[in-house]
Amino acid sequence: MARSAPSTAQSASGGRRYRQTIVKVDLWTALKLSLCFYISAMFVLVVALISLWLFAEAAGIISNVEKFIGDLFSDKSFTFLSIKVLQAVVLIGLLFVALQVAITMVAVSFYNIFAGLFGGLEVTIKEDDPPVR
């Protein structure tokens, strides 16, 4: 929610400027927006990691790493299970989404507390004149 400051000014270019103060951010709105953002980011990262995995597998990098780890631990039958790796990546991604959403909710709550104490964040909005045709 924003409340308008009583002053509006005319800028040199002819547009009007409004000073707005953000005094409260709705927690439910911030939760929905942060969930959408972080889930979308996780989806992009999972798709990128799958693409990198497939590229590394096609280039033979995965088999070389499996052979190296097998030699390191004297286990000649060591292999990565692709589905288990994918499940682990998605699980870790979901944990990070939950953590980031929680951090965002704490940050929004702190903002609301500090805005109540100190007055919020002032934003100047410039309204340009419509182009003349």
Describe, in plain words, how this protein is organized in 3D.
This protein has 133 residues and is α+β, with helices and mostly antiparallel strands. Helix content is 62%, strand content 17%. It contains three helices and three strands; from the N terminus they run ββαααβ. It has helices at residues 27-59, 61-72, 82-118; strands at residues 2-10, 16-22, 121-127. The model has no long low-confidence stretch (mean pLDDT 86).
The fraction of residues assigned to DSSP E strands is 15-25%
Query: What is the radius of gyration?
Result: 26 Å
On the 0-100 scale, what is the average pLDDT? 86
Series of H and E elements: EEHHHE
Query: Which sequence of strands runs across the widest sheet?
Result: 1-2-3
Briefly note the structural class of the backbone: alpha+beta
Number of strands: 3
- Spatial gap, N to C terminus: 36 Å
Helix content: 55-70%
Oligomeric category: single chain
General shape: elongated
Low-pLDDT windows of residues = none
Total domain count? 1
Largest sheet: 3 strands, antiparallel
The number of distinct helices, counting runs of at least 4 residues, comes to 3
Short description:
The chain is an alpha+beta fold and 133 residues long. Helices cover 62% and strands 17% of the residues.
List keywords for this structure.
three-stranded antiparallel sheet, 133 residues, elongated, alpha+beta, 62% helix, single chain
